[in-house]
Amino acid sequence: MASIVTVHGVALGTVPILFVGLLGLSRRLRLTDLTTAALVAYGFGCAAVMRAVVADGFIATAVIERIVTAEGPARNAGGRAPSRC
Known about the structure:
The protein is elongated and about 60 Å long. It has one domain (2-78). Helix 1 packs antiparallel against helix 2 (33-69). By secondary structure, it is mostly helical. It is built from 3 helices and no strands.
């Protein structure tokens, strides 16, 4: 599980670097309404990717590890699907 956390940590660090690269490209292309809109859209996408990386790489990993290492009834509860009724 440590490799999953490491890979997601590296991915989390590269997203802002990619955003700065796109910012430089948009400035080189001269800021117009189109490049500004594209930069804003890409920024929202970067925020969504960063949230997904945190949820998948850090939160889910910790939850799964706690379920696997649990003892007794807590471990059995992790294997059942939640009931909607």
